[in-house]
Design brief:
Blueprint: E1 2-7, E2 12-16, H1 18-27, E3 31-37, H2 48-51, E4 70-74, E5 77-86, E6 89-97, E7 101-107, H3 111-123, H4 128-163, H5 167-202, H6 209-264, H7 266-275, H8 280-285, H9 289-314, H10 316-329
Parallel strand pairs: 3-7
Antiparallel strand pairs: 1-2, 1-3, 4-5, 5-6, 6-7
Length: 330
């Protein structure tokens, strides 16, 4: 286990052995401690709460693998399992906050913690509660950045579709839709738990006004981020609909052209079938070459003239040319 101790409010961070972190947690008035565990728990791993000298009865989940979202009070401490996005995947940060210290535990490196520590010397949070909301807000920012990036990718894909359709675009849309579902599925349970926690415990008359302000600001940010993720889901669904509509439009144009060609050659089909029949009238009365050319060629010419007249009057050719011109411009 790698332990980092940050002296607050100065924001000075340094690595420390577990024994020193344990002593300072028991004595310091304002301290931030971050514990990085191996990505996979080794057999017989000692509980983090025992190593750091905390009350282990309420913290058996601290540092455990595959813990679900959590936001609750444990006596005089607040406990959280906070989801965040790191390198495109969901990680969970375990947080315990009291009036004296803020403890975070995670498996593997966490850029979220490093970014927060980098902000401490500049923002100088006055107490552990302000540091907690700073940490929770940074976790929401990881979701916001992921949602905005994915939304921009969806919009770029839609622009590409109008220029040229490619089956690979469907795969990219499916991947972005899965990303949106993953963001929503991982954030929504935590959002509901944190919303209930803040509404019932923090936003009451016993809490100082400054802490209530931090809580309200966090609530607004959380709702905005969740709305942005839902907008990403809607954009991904719209992208699939756009692709289907464009492909259907192209198929309709091809079918219309085939219908016109079939209509033009319909007289030839009729003449071929007509002269292929074997009955007495055809062989006795329509046996001259002149009658054959009159029916075969004359009927074809008349039908073509009628078809071209109808196409000209209904302006179908103009529509096809305009559609082709638009396609070339795109």
């Amino acid at each position: 286990m790698i332990v980092s101790v940050v002296s607050m409010p100065e924001g000075i961070a340094r690595r420390a052995p577990v024994s020193e972190a344990r002593e300072r947690l028991a004595a310091s008035r304002f301290l931030f401690v971050d514990a990085e565990l191996p990505e996979e728990a080794p057999p017989g791993e000692q509980p983090v709460a025992d190593l750091l000298g905390l009350e282990a009865d309420d913290l058996p989940w601290l540092g455990a693998e595959r813990e679900t979202a959590r936001a609750e009070f444990l006596g005089d401490a607040a406990a959280f399992v906070v989801p965040a996005i790191e390198a495109g995947r969901v990680v969970h940060l375990h947080v315990v906050a009291t009036e004296r210290y803020l403890l975070t535990v995670h498996r593997g490196p966490a850029g979220l913690v490093d970014r927060c520590v980098a902000r401490f010397p500049r923002e100088r949070p006055p107490d552990a509660v302000a540091t907690l909301f700073l940490m929770l807000g940074e976790a929401l920012e990881t979701y916001r950045r992921s949602a905005v990036q994915a939304l921009l990718e969806v919009e770029e894909l839609e622009d590409e579709m109008f220029r040229r359709r490619d089956p690979q675009q469907l795969y990219r849309l499916a991947r972005l839709r899965r990303t949106a579902a993953q963001l929503h599925h991982s954030l929504l349970p935590y959002h509901q738990a944190a919303e209930e926690f803040i509404t019932r415990r923090v936003l009451n008359r016993n809490f100082p006004e400054e802490r209530q302000r931090l809580a309200r600001e966090y609530q607004r940010t959380s709702r905005v981020v969740l709305t942005e993720i839902e907008a990403l889901q809607e954009a991904a669904r719209r992208g699939f609909g756009t692709y289907s509509s464009l492909v259907s439009g192209e198929q309709n144009g091809v079918i219309n052209r085939l219908a016109i060609v079939s209509t033009i050659f319909l007289p030839l089909t009729f003449v071929t079938g007509f002269f292929g029949m074997n009955f007495a009238y055809l062989s006795d009365e329509l046996e001259s070459r002149a009658i054959f050319w009159a029916l075969a060629v004359g009927l074809q010419v008349l039908f073509l003239a009628g078809a071209l007249y109808v196409l000209h009057r209904t302006r179908l050719w103009r529509r096809f040319r305009e559609d082709e011109a638009v396609g070339e411009d795109e």
